[in-house]
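pls read this stuff:
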Amino acid sequence: MSLDFLVPVDDAVLGIAALLPKQVIGKSLQVHTEKNGFPELENTRIAFFGIHESRNSYYPVMEYETSAFRKEFYQLYPGNWSINVADLGDLPSGEKPEDTYHALKEICLHLRQINIIPIVLGGSQDLTVSLYRSFETSNHWVNIVSVDNRFDFSQEEELISGRSYMSEIIMENPSKLNNFTNLGYQSYLIAQEELDLMEKLFFDSQRLGQVLDEPENTEPVFREADIVSFDMKVLSGVAAGNLSQGMPNGVDARTICALARYAGISDRVSIIGCFDLPNALIFHKLLAQMIWYFIEGVQCRFDEYPVNTAQGFTRYTVQMSDRELVFLKSSKSQRWWMEFVKENYLDNKSKRRALLSCTHQDYLNACNDILPDRWWKATKRN
């Protein structure tokens, strides 16, 4: 079984957890231990585990202390949750990076098949390829959201790495990738060729300033995601607790927790990864809070995917100067979607209407004859 690759949580962490108040998360977690073995996962909704693979990283990555994270996470108090969470331990590095990639893919595939959301903690962001490949047998296109200060394209390198893993996914044949969205990129870290490629492929992106100024506009992006990949180099040096080597500009602690909650609320997100983790006490605390907010988001899901417009939706038709757009608003969540036409490449006569998540502002813009950029790109991709 794929879960056999995982090793138990360190006994030292369990010893500290035993001294904590009975109400904390550490007392209610299902934990993989040396003494009791693997926990029963029948009613588990979320499971996290650590990983240390970084041999193909473009940047030096220190081995993350998952025990330090656990000490911080275990002592947090849960929200009003009805979902079970498991700590599955750690995935040790294989003899070769490819061995780790394979093991990670199999673990994520197995967990998703039993309706458990995997949270991968540690290693470098090239591991996103394994998360993506765990969808190989699925029957739908895959959307990836990357919270990162770079796009991670590299047209010269053939090696999978933290700077070129997206090229590996894009070039794969056959490909299941429908859309890639970057949140938090910084223009002075991006080559013009990468910007051109994003435009050519009609991928979406939001600059750091947009994310910081209006984090709520990222919610529709997460609503469309299957995979969410956090590269913690996106954080400012202050938030990461790494003032000597971190970036002067970046996502702050409050915003990264908001993004984690939006990822959790998305009915579609079925796997997340947090990579390139700095070893600093303040970051261990921040990562624990990020995971807390993600779990809180999952608890608050609206169960609106796939979208059933037969009930609970109000339909708005907007007549623009050159086209007609249809918007739908949910009475349950107050969230918005817009219709676009998907064409079948194999049969030019075959068309169907699909839904794309959007904001209320997109509706208002359409009323003012401004075509939403996400609608245009989605139409071009499909």
